[in-house]
Amino acid sequence: MENVSYLDYKGKHKGLLGWILSTDHKRIAILYLVSLIIFFLVAMTFGFLMRLEMLTPGKTIIDPQTYNALFTLHGVIMIFLFIIPGIPAVFGNFFLPIMLGAKDVSFPRLNLLSWYFYIGGAALVLISLFTGGGPIDTGWTFYVPYSLRTQTNVSLAVFAAFVLGFSSILTGLNFIVTIHRMRCPGMGWFKMPLFAWGLYSTAWIQVLATPVIGITLLLIILERFFGVGIFDPALGGDPLLYQHLFWIYSHPAVYIMILPAMGLVSEIIPTFSKKDIFGYGPIAMSSLAIAFLGYLVWGHHMFSSGISDTSRAIFSFLTFIVAIPTGIKVFNWVATLYKASIDARAPFWFVVAFIVIFSIGGLTGLVLGSLNTDIHLTDTYFVVAHFHYVMFGGMGLLFFGGLHYWFPKMFGKMYNEKIAKLGTLIFVIGFNGLYFPMFIMGYLGMPRRYYDYLPQYQIYHVISTIGSWVLIIGILILIFNLLKALLSKSNTTTELNPWGGTTLEWTVPTPPPLENFDVIPTVTHGPYYRPNLIKPEKSH
Amino acid sequence: MSNEAAVAHVHRDDEGSKMGMWLFLFTELLLFGGMFILYASYRFMYPDNFKVAAMRLDTLIGAVNTILLLTSSLTVVLAITALRRNQKTFSLYLLGFTVVAGGAFLVNKFFEWSAKIHHGIYPKGPEMANLSDGESVFYGLYYVMTGLHALHIIVGLAFIIFMMVFIARGKQTGDNCQKLENAGLYWHLVDIIWIFLFPLFYLIH
Amino acid sequence: MSDNTNTHTHEHPGYGLYILVWAGLVGLTTITVALAGFNLASLTVVVAMAIAVIKSLLVTNYFMHVRTDSAVFKIFIFVCLAIFLTMIVLTFFDLTYRFPLK
User: Fold this and answer.
1) Residues from chain B contacting residue C59 (CB–CB below 8 Å)
2) How far is CA A428 from the centre of its chain?
3) What average pLDDT does chain B have?
4) Looking at the whole model, is its pTM more than 0.80?
5) What is the pLDDT of residues A101-130, one digit of tens each?
C-alpha cells in the first residue's frame, strides 16, 4: 500500500468535501480539533469580557443582563463544546485505533455522525443567541424554576445541549466496541495503553450518564412549551428533583472531562521518564473505579439546596471515597518518576504543571465535600476557583499538553520547544494569578455569578483580571507557536518517534497513512516495556 | 489511492454490531430511567392522589396494548428464526404482523389520549386546574412517558419496515441478518419499557 | 479479532420455545391484572414490579438471546442496571428523609 499520509490522500471527494465527508478517524479528529479550538477561543473571549467587567463594582463595560448571558454561555460553550468532547474527540479519535493496532474505529460512519451532531449542536447554540428572547441567562446549570420562567431563549439552547449529548453518546459507544473488538493480536486488556483504559472508562460514563441529562433537558422544553408541570412547584412539581436529575449526569460528566486527561498523563510520563510506568494495574483499575464511584456523589452539588440531612451525610462520605483512586494515580505517576532518567521536554512540562495544579484543585474539592465547610463556601468564588483548577488546570492544560505531545506525529511538523516552554510558564503564572485569588475572596464571602460586589473584594478581582490577561498571553503564545509550525514549509519531519515513546503510534509513519498499518501488528509485551529497562539499584 | 478500494476489505463484525446496539439500548433505558426516577419520587410523595388519578385510565385498553406488544415481540423473534431457515416469505409475514400490532398499539394510544383531552385533562387544560397536585403530576408523567414511548414505537416500526425492505432485496439473508437482529433488540426494549409502564400507570388500585 | 460470519456455536431455539415464552408472558400479564383487583396496600408496587421484572427477564433472556450470548452482554446489562439502581437508591435517601414517612 502506498504511504500517502491521511492529510494528503485523494479519495472519492475532493478538497473540503474530502474532509467533511471522510470517515477516516484521523480526519474526523482534525475536524474536531479545529472546531474545538474555535469554540474554546470564543468562550475564552467571553471569560475575558467577564473579567473586564469585574474589575470594578457596579457597571464597568456591560450591563447585568449581558453579564448573566456571558457567564451562562462561557459555561455552556466551555463545558459542552470544549471540555466534554475535548480529549476523546480529538486525541481519542486520532490515536485510539492506532494504539490498539487497528485500522479505524468499529463504526467509522457513526464517528462522522458524532461530529455532525457536534456541529449541529454548536450551530443551535449560535442561533439561540440571536433568536427567541436572546441569549440564555440561567447559568449553565439551567436550574428550575428560573429556567421555566425567563424569557430568554432557553428552549433552543437547551435543545442544543441535547443534540450535543448525542455526539458524546455515539463517541462513547464507538470507543467501547472498538476497545472490545479491535485490539490487535496479543493485545490483551492489560497490554492496552493506559490512555485506552482512560477512554474506556470515560466511554461508559458517556453512554450511561448522558441520557439522564437528555431527558432532563427535554423536560425543560416540554414545560416551557406545554406546561407539563413536572418541575413546577405551582403544579405540584419538585425543583429539587430537577437538581437531582441534572447532577446525576453532570457530576459523572466531570469524570468524562478528567479521565482521558489522566490517561494522557499515563502516556506522557513513561515516555519522558524512559521507564515503565509504576503500577499499571492499579492505574487501569482506578480509572474504572473513578468512573463507577463518580455516579455516587452528585448530591455534593446540592448540600445547601434543601435535601435531607441523611443524604447529605451519605453524599459527603462518598465524595471522600472517590478521592482515593485519584490519589492512587498521582502516587503511581510520581513513583514512576523515582530514579527515572527524566527528559523534560515540552509535553512533560504540561504534565508537571498538571500534577501540581490538579492536586490543588482536588484537595479543595475535599474542602467543599465536607458539609460544614461547604455551607460556608458553596456558591462562592471558592467553588469557581476549585472547578477551574480541576477542569481547566486538569483537562485544559492536558489538552494543550496532548497537542504538544502528538503534534509531530499528527502533522509531520515540529514546533519551537523553547517558545512552547515559555508559553507553558506564562500560562501557569497567569492561571494561578487568575484563579488563586478566587479561593481567598470566596472564603471571604464573594458570591459567584454576581455582577456587582462590595468594595472590599475589589483588590482580588483586579489581581484575578490581570492574571486572566497573562493567561491569555500564554495561551496565544502556545497556539501561535503551533500554528507557525503547522504553516511553515521548512520544519517538516518524518521522524517516527521524536520523543522515544513505546506505544504503537510511534511505529507508524509520520503523519499516519489512511489505514494506519500495512500489516496489523502482533504485540508480545506491555505498552511501556523497554528492552533495557532502568531498574533502580536495590539499596542494601 | 482511492478511499473505496482501501476500505473494501473491512470485515463484517456481527458481534461488534450487536454490542453497539446493546449500548444504544442502554442509552434508551437510561433516558426512560430518568422518567422512572421521577415517577418513583412523585408516587412516593403523592401515593393517594396517584391512586385516584390512575382510576381514570382504562385498564382494558392498557392490557390489550400489553398483549399486542408482547405478541409483536414474539413475531419479531420468530421472523429472525424464519429468515435463518431461509423462509423469506414467512419471515416477511411475521414482520408485517409486528408492524400491524405496533400500529394497533398506536391507534389505541390515540383513542386513549383523545378521550383524556376531550375531558380537559391535559397540560394547561381546563380540567387539570381542578385536579390535586399529585393528580396533575401523575398526568404530566403519563403524557410524557407514554408519549415518549409512542415515539419509540414509531422509530421501532420504521426500523422494522426498513428491515423488511432489506430482506425483500436480499440485503439481509439467512447468514447475514445482524441488522434484523438489532432491529429486533430495539423492538424488545420498547416492549420491556411498556411492561413497566403498564402496571405503574394502570394497575395502582 | 473480528468475526465476520455468524459463528454461533449453539443452535438457535426453534419456534416452539419462543411460543412457550410468549405464553408465559401472557400468563404473567393476566396475573398482574388480576392482582390489581386486590388491596395489597404497600405491597402493590413490590408485587407489580416483581412480575414486571420476571416478564423482562423472559424477554431479555429468550427473545433477546442474552441467555445464550457470550458473557460480556450479561456483564454489560448488569453494569447498566447497577448504575441505574444506584441513581434510584441515592435519590431516595433524600426523599425518604425529607418527607415524613407515611
Assistant:
1) 73, 188, 191-192, 195
2) 18
3) 92
4) yes
5) 999 999 999 999 999 999 999 999 999 999
Residue A331 class from Cβ within 10 Å (0-12 exposed, 13-18 middle, 19+ buried)?
middle
CATH number at residue B166: 1.20.120.80
Q: CA separation (Å) from A540 to A333, A533, A537?
A: 25, 21, 9
Number of domains in chain B: 1
Predicted local confidence at residue B129, as pLDDT? 83
Contacts of B1 in chain A (CB under 8 A): 1-2, 4, 9, 514
Q: Would you call B136 and A229 a contact, using CB atoms and an 8 Å cutoff? A: yes
Helix and strand numbers, DSSP H then E, in chain C: 3, 0
The three cell numbers of residue A320 are: 471522600
Burial class of A41 by CB neighbour count within 10 A (0 to 12, 13 to 18, 19+)? middle
Residue A451 contacts residue A64 (beta carbons within 8 Å): yes
Q: Is residue B8 part of a domain?
A: no
Residue B9: inside a domain: no
State the DSSP code for A511.
Answer: S
If pLDDT is split at 50, 70 and 90, which confidence band does C99 have? Answer: confident
Q: Is A233 exposed, middle or buried (0-12, 13-18, 19+ CB in 10 A)?
A: middle
Classify A5 as helix, strand or coil: strand
**DSSP helix/strand/coil, A467:** helix
Closest CA to A391 of A349, A368, A360: A360
pLDDT digits (tens, 9 = 90+) for A400-450: 999 999 999 999 999 999 999 999 999 999 999 999 999 999 999 999 999
Nearest residue to A478 via CA among A360, A384, A353, A358: A353
Count CB atoms within 10 A of the CB of residue B170: 9
Are the C-beta atoms of A470 and A433 separated by less than 8 Å? yes
Asked whether residue B190 carries a pLDDT value surpassing 80, the answer given is: yes
What's residue C6's pLDDT? 44
Task: Count CB-CB contacts under 10 A for residue B144.
Answer: 22
Cell of C7: 459463528
Count CB atoms within 10 A of the CB of residue C10.
9
Residue A154 has pLDDT above 90, yes or no: yes
Mutate to test the interface with A, among C2, C90, C96 (most CBs of A within 10 A): C90
Q: Which of residues 140-169 of B touch A (CB under 8 A)?
A: 140-141, 143-144
B10 belongs to a structural domain = no
Greater confidence (B5 vs A230) lies with A230
Distance CA A116, CA A124 (A): 12
Q: Does A19 contact chain B (CB < 8 Å)? A: no
Name the grid cell of A84: 466534554
Neighbour-count burial of B56, counting CB atoms closer than 10 A to its CB (0-12 exposed, 13-18 middle, 19+ buried): middle
Domain that holds residue B134: 15-202
Predicted pLDDT at B125: 87
Which domains occur in chain A, in start order? 17-507 (1.20.210.10)
The Cα of A186 is separated from the nearest Cα of chain B by a number of Å equal to 19
Q: What is the mean pLDDT of chain A?
A: 94
Instruction: Please state, in angstroms and rounded to a whole number, the distance separating the CA atoms of residues A312 and A297.
Output: 10
